[in-house]
Design brief:
- With 164 residues, this protein is α/β, with parallel strands linked by helices.
- The protein has one domain (3-126): Rossmann fold (3-Layer(aba) Sandwich).
- Helices cover 46% and strands 20% of the residues.
- α1 links the parallel β1 (3-8) and β2.
- The longest helix has 19 residues, at 47-65.
- It is an enzyme of class 2 (transferase).
- Its EC number is 2.7.7.3.
- It is found in: Cytoplasm.
- Reversibly transfers an adenylyl group from ATP to 4'-phosphopantetheine, yielding dephospho-CoA (dPCoA) and pyrophosphate.
Length: 164
């Protein structure tokens, strides 16, 4: 069984993430969405909410692709998370050239830690390349319309969060 790991903070999950998840699911038998517990980033949504948002979106994607898709919180090294979930493939999404430099360094470090775990990059579809969770949160905070960028349940959660 080929297990893939798609890590991120997913704060919140966007249509760009959903696009990568859908396409990554076609490459593996089981896809684990690694939800990073990154206290340094100070996420808008707590871990439980982020996991719930991912699980809600992945039900339909799992049915559509026939691939088991699960959310898995982690706070350790990415390569250790891959070992924990039995992944031999790490999936990373790229939006722009600026993403590549950081991702290139990460691949080198992960390969040095364990060369048996491969990293695969998937480019976001053109219509999703500009979407970044950070920008989505800013638009929502300022009262803008984020329906083009996030699933309806996420849009509702953002609206509720900033309606105070």
């Amino acid at each position: 069984m080929r297990v893939g790991l798609y890590p991120g903070t997913f704060d919140p999950i966007t249509y760009g993430h959903v696009d990568i998840i859908r396409r990554a699911a076609m490459l593996v038998d089981r896809l684990v969405i690694g939800v990073a517990i990154n206290r340094d980033k100070g996420p808008l949504f707590d871990l439980e909410t982020r996991v719930a948002m991912i699980e809600a979106e992945c039900v339909a994607l799992s049915e559509e692709t026939g691939t088991e898709i699960v959310a898995h919180p982690f706070e350790n090294l990415l390569i250790d998370c891959a070992h924990d979930v039995g992944a031999t493939l790490i999936i990373r999404g790229l939006r722009a050239v600026s993403d590549f430099e950081y991702e290139f360094q990460m691949v080198g470090m992960n390969r040095a830690l364990d060369a048996s775990v491969e990293t695969v990059f998937l480019m976001a579809e053109a219509r999703h390349q500009a979407i970044a969770s950070k920008l989505v949160k800013e638009i929502a905070r300022l009262g803008g319309d984020v329906t083009k960028f996030v699933p309806p349940a996420v849009e509702e959660a953002l609206r509720a969060r900033f309606s105070g």
